[in-house]
Design brief:
The protein has 180 residues and is mainly α. The protein has helices at residues 13-24, 38-50, 53-72, 84-179.
Length: 180
């Protein structure tokens, strides 16, 4: 019987280089987000206000008041029925708020991309580390099997020697019994 061979590491040099890089970068849990400019912060605040239920409810109430006052006013209708001035104000508001919303969405997309990349790096690092652990366990198992093989070989040789010694002793006993 031949003792089992201990296998060298199975990871490619690319994987080992990638693991070294991933070990060198800052972990995702302690990585700092990009600092935002004042324009980014303003865009986030505007988007947060415009995208809230509070804004929608207040704006809806103002629209209803505007329409009711123009319909039932006795003195003058500053914006009669097709409500052209109201449409102009709402169009202006939409045209003005849209770029803020888009800037905020773009910034959020960048943050999401950074988070996704950190997640990917973390997953790849974990996968490679797990592969290394499997290899270490396999190596330990192979080493243990090799040690057991050597131990069994040693014990077999000892048993064979003892059997030979017993056989010689029995032969000697048989001869001495015959001689008597």
């Amino acid at each position: 019987m031949v003792p089992p061979v201990i296998k060298p590491t199975q990871l490619s040099s690319t994987d080992l280089n990638r693991l070294a890089y991933l070990r060198s970068i800052q972990p995702a849990r302690s990585a700092k987000l990009r600092s935002s400019s004042r324009g980014d912060r303003i865009a986030d605040v505007v988007t947060e206000v415009v995208g809230s239920w509070r804004f929608i409810i207040i704006q809806s109430c103002l629209l209803i008041i505007w329409i009711l006052l123009n319909i039932i006013s006795w003195i003058s209708h500053w914006d009669p029925y097709p409500f052209i001035l109201l449409n102009l104000a709402l169009s202006f508001q939409a045209a003005y708020a849209t770029p803020f919303i888009l800037m905020s969405q773009n910034r959020q997309s960048e943050i999401d991309r950074d988070n996704a990349q950190q997640d990917l790096d973390c997953d790849i690092k974990a996968e490679i580390e797990i592969e290394l652990l499997h290899e270490k366990l396999d190596s330990l198992r192979d080493r243990e099997i090799a040690n057991l093989y050597i131990l069994v070989q040693t014990q077999s040789e000892t048993i064979l020697r003892m059997e030979r010694m017993i056989a010689r002793q029995m032969d000697m006993n048989d001869r001495s019994d015959r001689d008597i």
